[in-house]
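Posting this for the archive.
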Amino acid sequence: MPDLTKTDIVAAETSATPGAPVEPAKAEKARSLWGDAWADLRRNPYFIVSSALIFILLVIAAFPSWFTSIDPTKGDLVNHFLGKPELAKVGSPEWLGWDGQGRSVYARLIYGTRASVIVAVCVTAIVTVLGGITGMIAGYFGGVVDAVMSRITDIFFGIPFLLGAMVVLQAFTDRTVWTVVFALAFLGWTQINRVMRGAVITVKQADYVHAAKALGAGTGRILFRHILPNAMAPVIVVATIALGGYIAAEATLSYLGLGLAAPTISWGVDISAGAAQIRVAQHILLYPSIMLSITVLAFIMLGEAVRNALDPKLR
């Protein structure tokens, strides 16, 4: 029996039912960059795990009283910090032990989440808006505008991030959450600026941008309707990864005594306080450090997952 080709089989099936309409092959619906990225992210275990951790952290930061009814600022010297944590009593005041002032370490871990999350989210939002707008203007207009803005960016780039934040914070006597947010945002916008500038320089050469100009579209419409949506992908990646870095920066400044200070509850403040008892009561420093590391790792994992999904070369 001779071998049948695919064409012969289709012809035979068609001839078997005379007059039956032949259904055209359904074309697969084309997906955008964001659609492809979301499809990749849903299959990425790093994205799922990091998103779950970040969601839990956000809930803890928004509703700390759901997780503990203990007052994190109430100290009782009867609760000696030399006592070992009672790990079997999950969620109790003595679960993770007490600090040097008789305050529950567990309660301070829960309430300390809020300060770290607020600092990270607010700083990231500010630097993304500020760096994104300045980078978009410099990349689109070029020429003298780009030269002037690039030199200003270079000046800020030349200042070491943590050292510069220390100098800025020294100018304030009251170091609150918003003071730390200002100090970090004041020096942290330059990276987003450079990323957005490079993306805009690439996107503005596209045919659809030239077509919009030929049709008489204004500068604002071209920037926000055509260029910005197509230049945001690398900015989102950098901003997501930077979230974890800002949490670590806040904890570092607080540990050095230049960031948040009491009565504000922060993991960095507790790590700094626990360093004095590290020889006799390691749990005071250990648990805030673990919480800080998990949070930073979650945001970095999320940023890496987003980077892999949005970069076609890594697929």
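The radius of gyration is 27 Å. DSSP finds twelve helices and no strands in the chain.
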